[in-house]
Amino acid sequence: MHFNKNLNENMLLVSDLHLGDSSKNTTRTQYMKLANQVDKEFCCFLDYWSKKPLHNQPWHLAIVGDFIDFDQLTFKPNLNQGRGLNFSITSREKEWGLQRDAIRSSWMLETIFERHFNLFSSLVRFIAKGNKLTVLLGNHDLALYWPKVKETFKKLMLKLYLEQRSQIKGDFHLDEKTFLNKISILDWFLYYPGEFWIEHGSQFDNLSGVQYVLKPLNPVKQTLLEENVSTLGIKYFSNKIPGLSVHKIDYWLLPDFFKWFVKIGLKATLKVGKGYFDLLFQSFKYWFFFSRHENVFFSKEQKKLLTKLEKKYNFKPKTLNRLVKLHKRPASKNLYKLANAFVADRFFLFILVIIIIPGLFFYWKSSLIFTLFFFSLFIIFWLLKKAKATENYHTIPKLRKQARKAHKITKTPIILGHSHFPMLYFKNSKYPYYYNIGSWLPGNLGKHKNGECDCSFSYIKIDRSKTPVEISLERWCGVNHKPNGDYLMNFSKPDFVLD
Ligand SMILES: [Fe+2]
Predict the structure, then answer these.
(1) Which of 20, 129, 456, 487 is within CB 3.0–4.6 Å of 73 for a Cys-Cys bond?
(2) Alpha carbon of 341 to ligand 1 centroid (Å)
């Protein structure tokens, strides 16, 4: 970690590439086609900026979480072909996908490297030209927490470099150690004192974060990672439903689901219904066997790690503790919150009312008024819950609220990803206190109003030679549109139409 401003590296930040999320119901060839767009854009983006260094200084590229989507990655190894597989697949894994332990996650990572060969080759070229790479963990790539997976990532990058360096123009001829030293994988944050604080942002979201950011393990079975509402929903529901995009349903409300049911027809709707009950049952099992338990050892371990980090970054004692306190307690730890997140409370209430009201009416005809009163109460209750749930689900306000608090602690701008919506916020100040990088998911945003660019590949560029550092939120407008000032996004004056 370098804190010395004299080092003068400038930053490029991207987030939420979600490599692997096109794996559902696709063959290898279909996957490669789907993956091609993001690979192509990312390669061009890196090649473009590596030829255009700011003030002749190297770049430090940070991928701020959800780079690789282990949760939505549904590839399974072909056991007949095998390539020295050192694990077998259980019947549960055949049904619900591979567990995210260290060995299986390493296999998933190797597969992603194979299928996004062009993207990783361009990253290697970028580093070979003297730039640096930091990968931060997000909720979809929590598997990078495992030391074995971190090691696999670096090994695969080095292998690619050694294979390709003879063809790289402008290669710095790095030895193996120097090359590897240019790659870091960080479990929580990237911080430049007095300049900025960067983290993925899922810890500020009760549906996606984990209880202990530096120890994101299952409290009972420590060979596995902790799971939250988002992971459970993906594993036990959306991964099983063909054509369903988890990035879209995150923002759906009841009417959107009804529209979808009408579109897919009765048979598919019944399948979704079965999937929903599977999700509720499996999530209840997860709560009962794992998440309701506390692990005091993890809490102690995290405290020790926090003290170490505070010394490393010259923080005042307890500063990191204050930042950790801003993290939301995972909804999966509380049965009611878990049920509420999956709308199970309202669903069962609805069923109950459907059964009770006609019953009351039938056996207690004289009490029509009582029945109506009961029904009105239900409607009020339901609406209140619905409003509360909307607040719960929406990532953007949750992140903004916590970023404001984090800014008061670090006294620097807070930069997050996770929400997929590029934004910046001011509060009585010339400089924004919070930036969101947005995502690299194709088609995430609507069209630009002037129709010149409809891509969603937003990024942040930081010129560290300025004081305070100059942070610009921009977007890569596609291989045919080079970025320029006209494409600078400023969400304090929205120029985007959201889908
Ligand atoms: Fe995320």
Answers:
(1) 20
(2) 17
Q: What is the pLDDT of residues 411-420, one digit of tens each?
A: 999 999 998 8
CA distance 385 to 378: 10
* Angle of CA points 198, 403, 325, to nearest 5°: 95
Give the distance (Å) from ligand 1 centre to CA of residue 422.
13
In angstroms, what is the span from residue 414 Cα to ligand 1's centroid? Answer: 16
Distance from the alpha carbon of residue 416 to the mean position of ligand 1, in angstroms: 10
Task: Give the strand pairing for 414-416 and 183-186.
Answer: unpaired
Measured CA distances, 377 to 239, 341, 382, 390 (Å):
37, 22, 8, 20
Q: How far is the CA of 204 from the centre of ligand 1 (A)?
A: 10
Two tokens at 366?
């004289």
Q: How far does the centroid of ligand 1 lie from the alpha carbon of residue 134, in Å?
A: 17
Q: Cα(297) to centroid of ligand 1, in Å?
A: 26
What number is the average pLDDT over the span 307-311? 92
The SS3 assignment for 105 reads: helix
Residue with tokens 């994101």: 216
pLDDT bracket for residue 387 (50, 70, 90): low
**Distance in Å, CA 15 to ligand 1 centroid:** 9
**CA–CA dist 183, 301 (Å, integer):** 26
Least confident span in 33-37, 108-112, 483-487: 483-487
Distance 289 CA to ligand 1 centre (A): 25
Tokens of 389: 């749930």
Dihedral sign of CA atoms 123, 42, 34, 93 in order: positive
Decide: helix, strand or coil at residue 245. Answer: coil
DSSP 379: H
* Cα-to-centroid distance, 179 and ligand 1 (Å): 28
Q: Which residues of 289-320 are buried (b: 16+ CB within 10 A; e: fewer)?
A: ebbeeebeebeeebeebbeebbeeeebeeebb
Antiparallel, parallel or unpaired: β 457-463 and 10-14: antiparallel
pTM of the predicted protein model: 0.88
d(CA 270, CA 258) in angstroms, rounded, equals: 13
State the pLDDT confidence band at 393, using cuts at 50, 70 and 90: low
